[in-house]
Amino acid sequence: MNSLELFSGVGGLAKGLELSGFKHTALVEFNKHAYASLCENFDSQKVFLSDVRTFNLDALSDIDLVAGGPPCQPFSLGGKHQADRDGRDMFPWAIHAIEQLRPKVFVFENVKGLLRQTFSDYFEYIILRLTYPAFSVDAQLDWRCHLNELRSMSQLSYTGTKYNVQFKLINAADYGVPQLRERVVIVGIRSDIKKVWSFPQETHSVDRLFWDMHVTGEYWDRHGISKSERPLMDKPLKDKVSRLTEKYGMFQPPARPWQTLRDAIGLIPDPRSDHNIQDHVFRDGARIYPGHTGSMLDAPAKTIKAGDHGVPGGENMIRFPDGRVRYLTVFEAKRLQTFPDNYMIKGSWGEAMRQIGNAVPVLLAETIGHGLMRCIESKSSACLSSRRLSPSRIGEDVAGLRG
Predict the structure, then answer these.
(1) Which among 86, 108, 253, 290 is least buried, having the fewest CB atoms inside 10 angstroms?
(2) Top-tier CATH class for 2-202+358-384
(3) CA atoms of 317 and 323, how far apart (whole Å)
């Protein structure tokens, strides 16, 4: 199955889709540093340093999948919140690629902020444009005028390509990624394929992590943590454990435990030690201050981000149980985004962290890719995956994990 990757970034989505069986025809990226990283990890002859708006789609044929992560800054909670008024909004060009190439399926990923109430009309417009990509658009008219027409599309005579489009807010931690990372995933299946898409079911849960930590102690045993080194069971934690045992009785929660920062990097040598890991370099100067506290070692990491002016907050720091903090190395950050250890990322520490922060976790991309592959190849009318994505359960339990 041939794929086109738009807004490729450092290649997290591309790598996951490749691992699930898709063959990349082209990977398109505008940023020169991310482009250099892509050339290190994919066939450089298929990597293009280009603006999506000027990339020649006419040179492509037989594309089964179009994928990508349109720039998130127009919708990010930490951005300027200008949506369609932001020059970085590339959704119209993603839609243009769908219209021209008519792939069997497409998948796009973006930030949770895309679902904000203030963007609801524009998000509806995006979904309807993806549903009816061949619907003619007058560039001189405001998108709101087109939205009203699209809302009435079922009453109009539309004979162009149509897609069955679904979207879901998902948390990567629910699929084994050692990071609390909520993102919107949009999937479209071309209607003539007559297949029903079902998002993958969650495989990991916070309940199972708490169970392994505080009911059986299996988590601490696995990491060789003695009882004297384990967290004290205060009353709120005891109450939480009591509710958990009441919920599940004698049987452990069915999913696997959320993966923690310790799970991801626990066996990696200290960056100040003598090791031969190229991108595992100690960076001095990490400190705690309000709103900048780092990621707890025994919880999924906070969302690794890439801001307009570098890596924001404390998402780029590890916070150890004794209160010490230090910056993540590039190698460790790759682990949190489930990149292969030998995946090369070009640029300085700050630039590499920006690329990593913008990426789709490879494991999540692979999970979705397997579902898409089954959907395309399935002979039945439904391509129900063994997994189904759903919004994460961010609540009291997660608050307890974050500390």
Answers:
(1) 290
(2) alpha beta
(3) 12
82/70 Cα distance (integer angstroms)? 15
Q: Please identify every stretch of the chain with a pLDDT value under 70, giving residue numbers as ranges.
A: 72-88, 139, 154-156, 307-313, 378-403
Q: What is the edge-to-edge ordering of all strands in the sheet holding 317-319?
A: 295-296, 317-319, 325-327
In the chain, the amino acid numbered 195 is K
Q: Residue 388, Cβ neighbours under 10 Å: how many?
A: 14
Per domain, the residue ranges of the chain are 2-202+358-384, 205-343
Condensed to tens digits (0 to 9), the pLDDT of residues 102-139 reads: 999 999 999 888 898 888 888 999 999 999 999 877 76
Do residues 83 and 122 make contact, with C-beta atoms less than 8 angstroms apart? yes
What is the distance between the alpha carbons of residues 63 and 156, in angstroms, rounded to a whole number?
A: 29
Residue 149's H or E segment, with its range, is: helix 143-151
296 and 402 in contact (C-beta within 8 Å)? yes
Q: What ranges in 160-310 are assigned the alpha helix state H?
A: 206-214, 218-222, 235-248, 261-265
Alpha helices in 32-133 (DSSP H): 32-41, 91-101, 120-131
pLDDT the model gives residue 379: 55
- φ, ψ of residue 30 in degrees (nearest 5): -90, -30
Q: Give the count of alpha carbons within 13 A of 27, CB side only.
A: 29
Task: Classify 325 as helix, strand or coil.
Answer: strand
How far is Cα of residue 151 from the mean position of the Cα atoms in its chain? 30
Backbone angles phi, psi at 388, to 5 degrees: -135, 125
Per-residue pLDDT tens for 329-374? 999 999 999 999 999 999 999 999 999 999 999 999 999 999 999 9
Residue 53: in which H helix or E strand, if any?
Answer: none
